[in-house]
Amino acid sequence: RDNYVKFAVDSIVSRIGTKYYLVGEEPEVLRLVDAFLRRNRFIELHLKLARDLVLSGNAFVNTVPAGRIEALHYIPLSSIRRIVRGPDGRPIKYVQHWHGRVAELSAEEVWHLRYNPVDEGAFGEGLVNHLARPGMGYQVKGKTVRRPPFLEIKERIDNSMRILVEKYPPRSIFRVPKAAREAFREAYEQAVAGQDLVVDFDVQQLEVKMDSRTRFYELIDHLDRHVVTGLRNPLIRLITYTGFTYASAMAAVEALEPEIALLRDYLSAQYSEMLEKVLRQHGIDPGPSGIRLLFGEPQAPSWEVRDVIEAARGDERNPPIITIEEAREMLRMAGWKL
User: Fold this and answer.
1) Which residue has the higher pLDDT, 254 or 16?
2) Which pTM value belongs to this model?
3) Which H/E stretch holds residue 294?
């Protein structure tokens, strides 16, 4: 719900990207996997999973049916409240609260993407986790005092600013003789903003001044730096700070590229592992096919027109390796009108 958090998550997800391609050794298996992904609207699902993963380090998918997966259904992140684990630490079931109902999903029904867990925790860690936690605590007269979560402090200050704007504009207290109070009240209520009051009795005006302690700009800036640092997104500064240039923001973003690449690799590995599981459940050994889902553009070999002509023509020693029609199709792709 925080604007900073939403902007940071959306910008990182956009850098992870949605372009993907499949690699493998068996064309038939590639076609089956591609059909499976299209049937489950993979790009839409990927955007939701990437967003949840960046935000919290967790994303959940309901695999249906568990023993022979045909469909992948997105599970809302906030609905998973608890993970029950066995003695070996592996999940046994997931407790879901959704629309007033409590459901228990077996581990076989849930595909849990868990990124960057701390101390082998059941849940992963994302951008918002540490910002939504209170401090470790310190002792004051034998009692433990904890700092509230940074996001809670930020929301309180945002609300305090609203109160200052709405309730503390320049105000005055009017001291009016008792006999004239009713007449003054009527004149004051009928006056519009900015209009001067003219009365025939003495009125003393006392200005209500704001406490000087409300000047806490340095403290707000200190909190703001904590939040922006926690979200690891310097582009926020480009929008909120005067003088922070686009070049500065992009230079800072480049420093985040290794982390974004790590997220991209993690998602690629998780997706590839799921596809292998689907193939095995459908009686296909994924080993020989070497199926992988990768992000980005496929690396295609570069060629020139003369390469195509020579490949179609051949010579005395080397027969043609492509047909004339295949050569014409490649030339069409290169922009030739054939």
Assistant:
1) 16
2) 0.70
3) strand 292-295
